């Protein structure tokens, strides 16, 4: 077998293009690491981290942090190496199948980490949606249904399942290798060719978009249910304020007692924005994977698809900083502490 070698065009591999790509990667890595360090610090030093929702936020930030610490810096190192050195590194592209004495392929670590962190992100967003929907639909039973132990258990399950799925092409098939792709500038699964044809088990890569879109579909369905309930409660509150209902009749009293809090409603809206952002960032790479299985390479598009998904790792921090007032307050308290230490 031989690997499906990526196309390397002047547009994707020229010196100027590589330089711009490296500057972009370094900026993105800095934004991901700094943003998620702030998120984790705020979560650890405030009471938010000791709640089920806090556990889920920490899980999401940890997955994003791993992308910024491992995945992006490796691409930066490889691109700088290719620009400075006249020859590529020994492990570079296809060398892992050319003999038995080749060095260890770093993409065997970096590739599954990126795929696994992506699956952790969408599964965590799904769990956050479920947690907020329970708070909105059954606010009186939220504390008994969503407990700390159950949340930690589901967080652990999401990490284990996500990384097992990330390794599925290597576990269930011997016709895949992980190598650095000059087009996407990342470690990608590369199917081996039998003659000029892809082997039948190459379709196992479709597990990746199938898993993500299944969870995204379920997340959208739960969000629709939650927002429908929020809209119903908003209408009832408006009628109560106008005097059309009274607390003793029409179910107004019961509705008021079971009405979700303002923080639950705002958190549900924030998670809805997170879901939309992840869907927008994942859709291009799903199209690319489908085309790759069929036999297309799409060199320039692959860079756009993979790095748009990578950029989502710093979007979560931006969304929280804009939407979550408690998070902004935690950041201000953190900065105030850092400024007060030198003065004291």
What do you see in this structure?
This protein is mainly α and 344 residues long. It has a single domain (9-192, 199-336), classed as Rhodopsin 7-helix transmembrane proteins (Rhopdopsin 7-helix transmembrane proteins, Up-down Bundle). 71% of the residues lie in helices and 6% in strands. The protein has twelve helices and four strands; from the N terminus they run βαααααααβββααααα. It has helices at 10-13, 15-45, 52-84, 107-137, 142-145, 148-166, 168-171, 207-242, 252-257, 262-294, 299-323, 325-343; strands spanning 2-3, 176-181, 186-194, 197-198. Strands 1, 2, 3 and 4 form a four-stranded antiparallel β-sheet that branches. A hairpin with a 2-residue loop joins strand 3 and strand 4. Helix 4 runs antiparallel to helix 10 (262-294). The longest helix is centred in the middle third of the chain and has 36 residues, at 207-242. It is globular, with a radius of gyration of 24 Å. The protein starts with a strand and ends with a helix. Mean pLDDT is 80; it is low at 1-7, 95-100 and 247-257. Belongs to the G-protein coupled receptor 1 family. One of its GO terms (molecular function) is G protein-coupled adenosine receptor activity. Its main location: membrane. Residues 35-320 form the G-protein coupled receptors family 1 profile domain. Keywords: Cell membrane, G-protein coupled receptor, Glycoprotein, Membrane, Receptor, Transducer, Transmembrane, Transmembrane helix.
